[in-house]
Amino acid sequence: MAREIVLWPHKVLNSATKPVTEFGPPLEKLLAEMAEAMQEAKGIGIAANQVGESLRVALVGREDGTFFEIVNPQILERSGKVTLEEGCLSIPNEWEKVPRNEKVKVRYQDRTGQWHEVEAEGKLAHVFQHEIDHLDGQVFVEHLSSLKRSLIQERMKKLQKALKRQKD
User: Fold this and answer.
1) In a designed cystine with 125, which of 14, 37, 85, 120 is the match (CB 3.0 to 4.6 A)?
2) Which sequence positions are flagged as catalytic?
3) pLDDT tens digits, 70-89
4) Rounded to 5 degrees, what are φ and ψ at 49?
């Protein structure tokens, strides 16, 4: 079953996640639930803290619809600058241009604990940086001006109140 996506400014989104130390069925179950939540929301990436789990795990979507399962990722190299439009499953219906690095080299573990490195550029590099930011306790609006961030935060608070009324 898909997990519910946490909306910003929930505190789990603003705290750094913990490294994964145990690999096996619990991690596999989390990855499956994250994939389902991401697909239901029509996203291209999701971090574990977006479904309420403070673990250093994320999914990063490729253009062909498949995705990288990244565990304990680290950005090893960054180069170039590019600004692309970005959105977030935890900040629905908000899109803003965000400056990021054009290319990144990322080291991560897979679901079995094996280490991998990947070089990404363009939109894929953008998604890697966005999801790794989540794992570091940062959401994309923190790259925006304080005015834009506060306007988005007000809209998110209104959305949360409306959703709470629907549930009650």
Assistant:
1) 120
2) 131
3) 999 999 999 999 999 999 99
4) -70, -15
